[in-house]
Amino acid sequence: MTHEGDPHLKSLGLLEELIEEADLDWATVLDPEPLSMSTGLPVSVVRAGLTRRPMPQTDFQQQVAQRLAFLRETRLRPDGGQYTQAEIAEEAEVTPQWVGELLKGRKVPSLELASRIEDLFKVPRGFLTATPSQALNRALEERLAHEQAQQLTGLRELKERFQLRSIAFRGAPETLAAMQDLLNLILDDQPRST
Questions:
Q1: Which of 4, 90, 128, 143 has the fewest CB neighbours in a 10 Å radius?
Q2: 19 near 26, Cβ under 8 Å?
Q3: Within a 10 A sphere around the Cβ of 117, how many other Cβ atoms?
Q4: Burial class (CB in 10 A: 0-12, 13-18, 19+), 37
Q5: Are 52 and 113 a contacting pair, CB within 8 Å?
């Protein structure tokens, strides 16, 4: 059940504020499909989290099994094939039979074993074990950091283009695009030296 204590709600709120302030495209920034790919959550669960509806919870063993199956389907070997149970077992230092039991939802990995599996698939720690809200929170934090970096890059470019020493936003924040339009308008009205 979604409630105020769900970790993703704070990140979602911050990202929504940035989308509004920077006049970003909601559908692009909060596209559930890439968020699903980065979390291992079904798109329907991501959508529920993004709309603050309850995020369905599964049994922990089933969650780990589903996310491991998701990783096998979406994070392929360099040759394009799926990792075999034997390859996963070798990386995790367990038997292929144990991996089979894990995939059936009959085993739970220790944090150390989960970390080894996550390393094999090159996903963040906690990918297999995070709650849906924690998984979505991690993806939203990454998205927020990316969008904030884009805004800083835009401000730097704006300062360089118009040879400004600094830019300060006070009161209601203006969008970067609106600030650029305003500066263009001011410069276009200035008499040109010949």
A1: 4
A2: yes
A3: 24
A4: middle
A5: no
Tell me the pLDDT tens digit for each residue of 28-61: 999 999 999 999 999 999 999 999 999 988 899 9
Q: Look at the block and give the residue holding tokens 């798109």.
A: 43
Note the pLDDT tens digit of each residue in 143-159: 988 888 877 765 666 66
Please tell me the predicted confidence (pLDDT) of residue 170: 45
Please give the residue that has the higher pLDDT: either 185 or 36: 36
The helix (run of H) or strand (run of E) holding residue 49 is helix 43-50
pTM tops 0.70: yes
What is the C-alpha separation between 109 and 90, in angstroms, rounded? 14
**Long-range contacts made by residues 146-155, C-beta under 8 angstroms, separation at least 24?**
147/15, 147/18, 147/19, 147/22, 147/24, 147/29, 148/18, 151/18, 151/22, 151/176
Token look-up 């996550």 returns 118
The residue length of the chain stands at 194
d(CA 114, CA 109) in angstroms, rounded, equals: 6
